Amino acid sequence: MDVLTTLTADKPVVIFSKSTCCMSHTVKALICSFGASPTIIEVDKMPSGQQVERALIQLGCKPSVPAVFIGQQFIGGADEVIKLNVQNKLAQLLLGAKAIFIWSR
């Protein structure tokens, strides 16, 4: 899990993704629609991608991507992020992590 801590440190939003995953694309688009600029880590394009993917699975990500961290806290995958958005809680998390600075409905 140290690899995840290192990759998410000091970043407001980190999305672990695979370049061919449609749900990863959806989550990235959703978070960007708030005006956030997340750090995107494409695990299928990095040399240590399998190690990162194993760490995500150990954390409870099934499937391993997308996996979203906001304010260095693991939020979950696509289902959890979409649920937070439907509940109008995603913007508040992004504000709290200083990923965005203003939001009004």
UniProtKB/TrEMBL annotation:
InterPro entries named in the record: GlrX-like_pln_2, Glutaredoxin, Glutaredoxin_subgr, Thioredoxin-like_sf
Lineage top rank: taxon: Eukaryota
GO cellular component: cytoplasm
Keywords of this entry: Cytoplasm, Redox-active center
Start and end residues of each Glutaredoxin domain: 13-75
Localization (cell): Cytoplasm
Location (main, coarse): cytoplasm
PROSITE patterns per the UniProt record, alphabetical: GLUTAREDOXIN_2
Database matches in NCBIfam families: GlrX-like_plant (TIGR02189)
PANTHER family: GLUTAREDOXIN
Family of the protein in this entry: Belongs to the glutaredoxin family. CC-type subfamily.
Protein name as catalogued: Glutaredoxin domain-containing protein
Organism this protein belongs to: Glycine max (Soybean)
UniProt lineage: Eukaryota, Viridiplantae, Streptophyta, Embryophyta, Tracheophyta
